[in-house]
Structure to design on (348 residues):
């Protein structure tokens, strides 16, 4: 069902890539390759994937698709990393089913695949086991950490929205989508990171949404290639931007103001999320500060590139990642005061 205020259209699939960037192969392909490699190395066939193997499959998905997250995860205790692998793989696999261009599936087939995979997850949660090479680890992590099944369902609902909705009239409409696609991911991470403060979930959800809004800005071109715009239509109108600007892949003055405005919105969420650092157990703080700083820096790089989102895909180089990691170990960052609405309003 279409969300209130959202626009339902048939999702397109244009075969272009942003600034020469080619997205990694879809999770379905990567998992199949991994299992074939294990078969060739002597792993048994005809039996469900062992949980330890499933965690390794999930690790491979994170390494391929989530380079910044994978880097930050290295700074978690080894015993906790596998849970991050599982949760990331859960989100990535579902997301690829609904929108990876390389699959070449029509919406009906994507929906069928998502629904079947979702049923497998729910069945696994009931039986506390799964033969699926990704879900085996996901089910174990959800059970071991007591992760809310409601959060899992909320995420899957947002993935299903991607099969029906490709425009959002207002930020409030978009928020319904990002609650499931991103906020609940922050919530699911809390048992991994260790947090008991009553406001920790809110701050984790702020960070999850900030990550998602950053992705929307970085991936404007890639999303347009899928026929989607994740920037609120009311904001496009406010800055005089039309879909013709996306079609021409041109960043004019109005588009720059639009992207700066959306970046300010994301930065406000990053600033709010900083209060959550001290709500985590000490063993997790360095890793989350690194992920926080590196992902927020993507916005800085977008701005430094004059918002040329159709020509360049902003990323943080490995050397910069290493420098941030060393700094956070040596001189940990301290939370700043939230910039508040004034900083967003300055871009109007």
């Amino acid at each position: 069902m279409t969300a209130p205020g959202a626009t339902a259209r048939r999702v397109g699939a244009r075969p272009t890539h942003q600034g020469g960037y080619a997205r990694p192969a879809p999770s379905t392909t990567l998992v199949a390759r991994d299992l074939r490699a294990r078969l060739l190395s002597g792993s048994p066939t005809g039996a469900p994937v062992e949980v330890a193997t499933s965690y390794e499959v999930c690790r491979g998905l994170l390494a391929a698709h989530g380079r910044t997250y994978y880097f930050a995860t290295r700074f978690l205790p080894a015993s906790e990393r596998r849970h991050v692998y599982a949760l990331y793989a859960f989100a990535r696999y579902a997301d690829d089913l609904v929108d990876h261009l390389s699959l070449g599936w029509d919406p009906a087939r994507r929906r069928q695949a998502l629904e079947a995979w979702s049923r497998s997850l729910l069945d696994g949660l009931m039986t506390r086991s799964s033969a699926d090479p990704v879900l085996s680890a996901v089910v174990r992590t959800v059970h071991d950490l007591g992760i809310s099944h409601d959060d899992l369902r909320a995420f899957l609902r947002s993935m299903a929205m991607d099969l029906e909705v490709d425009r959002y009239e207002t930020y409030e409409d978009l928020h319904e989508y990002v609650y499931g696609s991103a906020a609940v991911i922050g919530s699911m991470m809390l048992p991994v990171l260790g947090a008991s403060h009553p406001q920790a979930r809110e701050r984790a959800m702020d960070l999850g949404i900030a990550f998602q809004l950053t992705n929307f800005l970085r991936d404007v071109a890639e999303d347009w290639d899928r026929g989607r715009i994740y920037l609120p239509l009311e904001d496009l109108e406010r800055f005089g931007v039309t879909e013709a600007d996306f079609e021409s892949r041109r960043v004019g003055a109005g588009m720059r103001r639009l992207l700066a405005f959306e970046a300010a919105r994301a930065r406000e969420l990053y600033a709010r999320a900083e209060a959550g650092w001290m709500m985590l157990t000490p063993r997790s703080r360095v890793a989350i500060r690194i992920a926080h700083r590196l992902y927020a820096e993507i916005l800085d790089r977008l701005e430094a590139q004059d918002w040329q989102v159709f020509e360049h895909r902003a990323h943080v180089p490995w050397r910069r990642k290493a420098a941030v990691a060393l700094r956070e170990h040596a001189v940990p960052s301290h939370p700043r005061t939230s910039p508040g609405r004034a900083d967003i309003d300055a871009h109007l």
